[in-house]
Design brief:
Layout: E1 13-15, H1 16-23, H2 28-38, E2 41-43, H3 44-50
Antiparallel strand pairs: 1-2
C-alpha cells in the first residue's frame, strides 16, 4: 500500500520556475539553485524537502 497520500499531492510534477518558485516566494538565487539541482521540473515532495526560504526580517546578531 502507498503511504504517499492522495494521488497527485506530493508526487505531482511542478514547474520549478513558474509554479513552485513563485508560489513559495523564493529568492532568485534559491530558484536558480533548485533549477540546477532538478532541472525545469520536479516533484512537490522533492522541492519542499530541498527549498530554503530566507526570512525577510533581519535576524539579530549575537554580540
Amino acid at each position: 500500500m502507498d503511504d504517499a497520500g492522495p494521488p497527485g499531492s506530493s508526487e505531482q510534477i511542478w514547474s520549478v520556475f513558474f509554479d513552485f518558485a513563485r508560489r513559495y516566494r523564493l529568492a532568485k538565487r534559491e530558484e536558480i539553485r533548485l533549477l540546477m539541482l532538478y532541472g525545469p521540473t520536479a516533484s512537490l515532495r522533492d522541492l519542499l524537502a530541498n527549498a530554503q526560504r530566507h526570512s525577510l526580517i533581519p535576524q539579530p546578531t549575537s554580540s
